[in-house]
TrEMBL record:
InterPro entries, per database record: PPC_dom (IPR005175)
Residues of the PPC domain: 5-155
Pfam families: PCC (PF03479)
Name of the molecule in the record: PPC domain-containing protein
Superkingdom of origin organism: Eukaryota
Lineage: Eukaryota, Metazoa, Chordata, Craniata, Vertebrata
Length: 161
């Protein structure tokens, strides 16, 4: 288990209609040279999303094995492509170079769907995001052979000087 404490810096940003949320967040982080950024909160709406579902493994991370039925995925689906209006109910995760974000979206009937963000999060009206940065830490990702995925590595920032 890796853990560490740190001072906190807070950044707020609003993205507008048509902007792709994941790319916009990564650009924001890069422009400000944030070393240990994470999502504190996000509210808004999107018209598109590409998500990986929980049944993915390191060997099949981006395969589409089933068909969409409306916005609800088939049981075998690992990646879903959504193309309708959704409210962002929750967005959480780390925003280092290889961002690890999960999102929960609600459709027009209030039904929710969530997963690992792969991209195509096109903002509908707004995305108001508050980003935290652990100012004494550095977030990195390294391959974890136990999981088959690049996992979070937390380091004191002083080790990087």
């Amino acid at each position: 288990m890796a853990s560490a404490g740190s001072a906190l810096k807070v950044h707020a940003v609003r993205f507008g209609p048509g902007q792709e949320l994941l790319c916009s967040l990564l650009a924001f982080v890069e422009e400000r040279n944030l070393k240990a950024p994470f999502i504190i909160t996000c509210v808004g709406s999107v018209t598109k999303a590409t998500l990986r579902l929980a049944n993915a493994t390191a060997g099949n991370t981006n395969e589409v094995l089933g068909r969409d039925v409306g916005w609800q995925p088939a049981v075998m689906l690992l990646v879903i492509h959504l193309d309708e209006r959704f409210e962002i109910v929750s967005l959480v995760g780390t925003l280092n170079k290889e961002a690890h974000l999960h999102i929960c979206l609600a459709d027009k009937e209030g039904k929710t769907l969530g997963g690992h963000v792969l991209g195509d999060l096109e903002v509908f009206t707004t995305a108001e995001v508050v980003i935290g940065e652990a100012s004494d830490l550095l977030f990195d990702r390294q391959m974890d052979h136990r999981t088959g995925f690049p996992e979070l590595v937390i380091q004191p920032r002083s080790e990087m000087n």
